[in-house]
Amino acid sequence: MRLILLAAPGAGKGTQAEKLSEHYGIPTISTGAILRKNIKEETELGKVAAQYINDGKLIPDDVMIQVMSDRLSHEDCKNGFILDGFPRTLAQAEALEKSTIEIDKVLMLNVADETIISRLSGRLECESCATTYHKEFRPPAEAGICDKCGGHLTVRDDDKPETVKARLETYHTQTEPLINYYKEKGLLRIAAGKEKIEDTTAEVIKALGE
Ligand code: ATP
Ligand code: MG
């Protein structure tokens, strides 16, 4: 299955992508994880990304389109993939449409803005493997330590309150139009985000109809 996940920042898209990846045995391609890794390693892409990311702005379309067309051409994407964070603008969706990559379904995960703000303002992320936690809703077994790899948990720079607000605005203006775009193509499925991760996963799998 070649799936696009759409949702506001902090809606739990990354967590669901992980679950679906296990469920279907296909990789998740997370643009945020790719960009943060490049920032950490101070690559050319990382230097460009850093200029935008902490202001809650999007990386320019031509840069993202190039990064993703490279990534999706890797062998591990042959049997399907889950896209977490791409496309995020109409220009990116149109570039994907023009490419040779076929998309089977687009899943929109619906979560209210209030829920998003409370989730983002307690979020922790593993510095090593990028698994996310929440101080209150999804705490790690041992404070500050990743359950999966033992890495150190930190608060993302772009989870600061001012940046969260900018990211939500960016989402509403630039990404939300994709909902209609994919609805018109007949690819859109909608799932309601629930309080518990497993309940959301069940909704998502039901919405995907498999
Ligand atoms: P969440 O981590 O909950 O998914 P998010 O969707 O805002 O929240 P990421 O997907 O990790 O966060 O992305 C972080 C930042 O990376 C974005 O705010 C944006 O600056 C940049 N980014 C990620 N994907 C894209 C994209 N497709 N086009 C442009 N910029 C992007
Ligand atoms: Mg993400």
From TrEMBL:
Q: Name one Pfam family in it.
A: ADK_lid
| Chain sites annotated for binding Zn(2+) | C126, C129, C146, C149
**Stretches for region NMP:** 30-59
Taxonomy, top ranks, is:
Bacteria, Bacillati, Bacillota, Clostridia, Monoglobales
Instruction: Indicate where this protein resides in the cell.
Output: Cytoplasm
The kind of enzyme this is, by top-level EC class, is transferase
Tell me yes or no: is Transferase among this UniProt entry's keywords: yes
Query: What exactly does this protein do?
Result: Catalyzes the reversible transfer of the terminal phosphate group between ATP and AMP. Plays an important role in cellular energy homeostasis and in adenine nucleotide metabolism.
Annotated residues for binding of ATP: G10, A11, G12, K13, G14, T15, R123, T132, Y133, E195
Database matches in PROSITE patterns: ADENYLATE_KINASE (PS00113)
What does the subunit comment say? Monomer.
Q: Where is this region: LID?
A: 122-159
Q: Which reaction does it catalyse?
A: AMP + ATP = 2 ADP
Name used for this protein in its record = Adenylate kinase
| Organism the protein comes from | Monoglobus pectinilyticus
For molecular function, the Gene Ontology terms on record are: AMP kinase activity; ATP binding; zinc ion binding
Q: What is known of its domains?
A: Consists of three domains, a large central CORE domain and two small peripheral domains, NMPbind and LID, which undergo movements during catalysis. The LID domain closes over the site of phosphoryl transfer upon ATP binding. Assembling and dissambling the active center during each catalytic cycle provides an effective means to prevent ATP hydrolysis. Some bacteria have evolved a zinc-coordinating structure that stabilizes the LID domain.
